[in-house]
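batch job 7 of whatever, protein = Jasmonate O-methyltransferase
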Amino acid sequence: MDQSTALLVYSISKTLSLEAPEDLTRNLIPAYDIDEHSRSERLPIVLEAYAKQYRKDFTLFLELRAKELVSGGRMIVSLVGRCSDAIATKFSYILEIVAQILCVMVSEGVIDKEKFDSFYGLLYEPSSEELREIIQEEGSFSIREMRAHDLELI
């Protein structure tokens, strides 16, 4: 594209990660575990790896979008995240349910344990502060307005 777009609108409903976090795959650390206690103990390492991967992927997303916009153009991005700037301490509610279902499928032999251990699908939910930092560090965009809405699933 030859910088002819004045407005881009993106709604990102899942993680931008195109690959599993290298920190996990290189060290053979599974994102999930059949044992809930082990899954809970490993969670900080897993979330840190996904945060790092998200930062890398979202930075690339911004760089590529900047090439599509004319100078002074605008971009609106809608995505799933979390309001709190605190480090995520648990899987999102939906992902915890998915993990439990996958664990049952492994225990019943529907899914091979080895494949389960190599599954790295995760919806990383960045905080609004993380997004602000990534956007500012990448440098192609300024933030005119950022809104976060707390949508708790029960």
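notes: The helical segments are 22-26, 36-68, 93-107, 113-117, 128-138.
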